[in-house]
Amino acid sequence: MQARRLLLDPAVHEEFIRLKNLVEEKDKKVKELQDNIAAVNFTPQSKMGKILMAKCRTLQEENEEIGNQASEGKIHDLAMKLSLQKYQNAELRSQFEGLQKRLGGLTNDVDRSHETLFMLQEKLEEKNQEIQRLKAELQQESCMENGSTEAAANGKDNGEMIPAEDAN
Question: Where found in the cell (predicted)?
Fold first, then answer.
């Protein structure tokens, strides 16, 4: 009962908690120092050393296996990307070849069009020359008619008659 009354006293209770925490800290410190002593005394030939070495080997093997799996996964991903790139490359190549063939056909069409255009230009020039020649002939005939009409008109004034055959 008296211990209970003492714990109810706030000052005593606080001192009790402080001392309890101090004991816990000291216990941790003792455990840490004991672990340090055990580590200093560690040898691969001791029972604990052998267990730790075996565990280290097991962990190292597991790490290597996981590394290999990760590497294989990356290789698999890269192989998938490579096959996709090859497929896209083949598709682009076939499209390019198709376009190249079409371009060759268009080039041939353009060449034929140029040849046709050139021939039509030559024919147009020939026709223009023919039109110019016919105009010149028509103008000459027109001048000749005008000249004979004027001569006929002049002959009437002079009292001479020009036969109709000569007028043409």
Answer: Nucleus
Identify the DSSP state of 44. Answer: T
Q: What pTM was computed for the model?
A: 0.36
Instruction: Say if residue 138 is exposed, middle or buried (CB neighbours under 10 Å; 0-12, 13-18, 19+).
Output: exposed
Provide the greatest CA pair distance for the chain. 181
Same domain, 65 and 30: no
Asked whether residue 17 falls in the same domain as residue 65, the answer is no
Domain that holds residue 28: 1-41
What is the percentage of the chain residues whose pLDDT exceeds 70?
A: 81
How many domains is the chain partitioned into structurally?
A: 2
SS3 percent helix, strand, coil of the chain, rounded to 5, is: 90, 0, 10
Q: Which two tokens stand for residue 69?
A: 């799996």
* 115 conformational bin, left if phi > 0, alpha if psi -120 to 50, beta if neither: alpha
Give the amino acid at 5.
Answer: R
